[in-house]
Amino acid sequence: MQVTSKMTPRRPTRAKSLLLAAIVLARSGLLLRADDPKPNPANTIHVELSPPVTPESFARAVHFFVAEVVDRSGNPQPMLLMKSRGGLFVDRQPTEIVRNSIIESLRAANLLANNESEADVVLEPYLFHFGLENGSSMDYFGKVEFAVTVKDAKTGDSKQVSANGTSIAGRGFRKKTIAKNMKEDMDAALEDAVTNLLRGTQLRDAVNSFGVRVEPAAPSPAAMSEAVSPAAAAPPLVNPVAASARPPNVASAAAVAPKHFDWLIKTTEAKHFTRAEGVELSPAFTEYLYAEIRSELVKQKHFGQVIGEGETVNELLLDHSVVVDGVLTEYKKGNRVTDGLIGFGAGARSLKMEITMARRSDNRSVAHIEVRVRLTPRMSEQVMARMAAKEIAEGLWKYRERASDGS
């Protein structure tokens, strides 16, 4: 009698299962890493600041030392600007690019100390962003953002200042065009950020506040005797009839009279718009709108030199300089279903803004417009910002035309 036995297959142990899973994950990880772009001469660009930025003048002679830039971006691949299309890299660490740009600008203005021990002020930069941000499908949105601890080398007093640079550049389809546009975009964003630092009111005010110790002067004996004199303490007698008959102060009246604004604009400062309560847009929208507004103001060619928020202006140009500010007053995100079924504006996304342009010298409003943009909710916030910026730049100049016509 032949006895046959059935042998049941042995199940893999827990240890073997874990080992197999680890092998699979390791292989998949190797495949993913193999697909990551690698830098080479064809996909690497050189971002630099040229020419150097001329710093703002300070109230006293001062020399700076620039410490090593600390990377606070959290980017695991800081030299990778774009991952698609084979990748696009910069040839140096962004921290090195930013530090060298600040150093060369200070050196060109003879404001750079040979070492930290010889410096009057030490700059300690912290880099938060270097590269692309989300833009519309029609452009590249370059951004450089960092903060600087400004420290008095003698007293140790310190203040925090921020710097922000943005740039908008057109997209490309060929690799050479993409690299060219990206280089121009990042060069411009870097220049904008360094300008925002070295020509900004924050750095100027911080440096000018260091070392200023004004001791109250001791009163002279004559001043002390005059202070306790009854005649000096008593108020002067005024004849009310004579005072009412006195002619008005013509000089003071002329000083407060508003000056005529002739629209020969030399500089225009754009500010980041604020939001009314209930306007729910992503935090990045305000930054992108700011960059697009500056870009459109430049394209209009009526607004002089377009500078960043918080940058200084020559005192001789104040009467011909303006500041553009605004409030996002209402936002409706729209309805895709309604937009798709009905169309003709139903279910559209809309944004309403109030914009003021004021003269820099006296903060007097010279233009006030309201802009509303509507588009399908299938379009992104960035496209909406692009449309809004174009409407703002054109609307401000049309306001000038209406004002000159008396309408």
Question: What would your notes on this structure say?
Answer:
The chain has two domains: about 40-205, ABC-type transport auxiliary lipoprotein component (Rossmann fold, 3-Layer(aba) Sandwich), CATH 3.40.50; about 265-405, Rossmann fold (3-Layer(aba) Sandwich). About 35% of the residues lie in helices and about 25% in strands. It has eleven helices and 14 strands. The chain has helices spanning about 15-35, 95-110, 175-200, 200-210, 220-230, 230-235, 240-245, 250-255, 285-300, 335-340, 380-405, and strands at about 45, 65, 70, 80, 90, 120-135, 140-150, 160-170, 265-270, 275, 305, 320-330, 350-360, 365-375. Strands 9, 10, 11, 12, 13 and 14 form a six-stranded mixed sheet that branches. Strands 2, 3, 6, 7 and 8 form a five-stranded mixed sheet that branches. A three-stranded mixed sheet has the order 1-5-4, with helices on one face. Strand 13 (about 350-360) and strand 14 form a beta hairpin. The model is unreliable at about 30-35 and about 225-255 (pLDDT under 50).
Short description:
Helix content is 35%, strand content 24%. It has helices at residues 14-35, 94-108, 175-198, 201-209, 221-228, 230-233, 240-245, 250-256, 283-300, 336-341, 381-405, and strands at residues 44-45, 64-66, 70-71, 80-82, 88-90, 121-133, 139-152, 158-170, 267-270, 274-275, 305-307, 321-332, 349-359, 365-375.
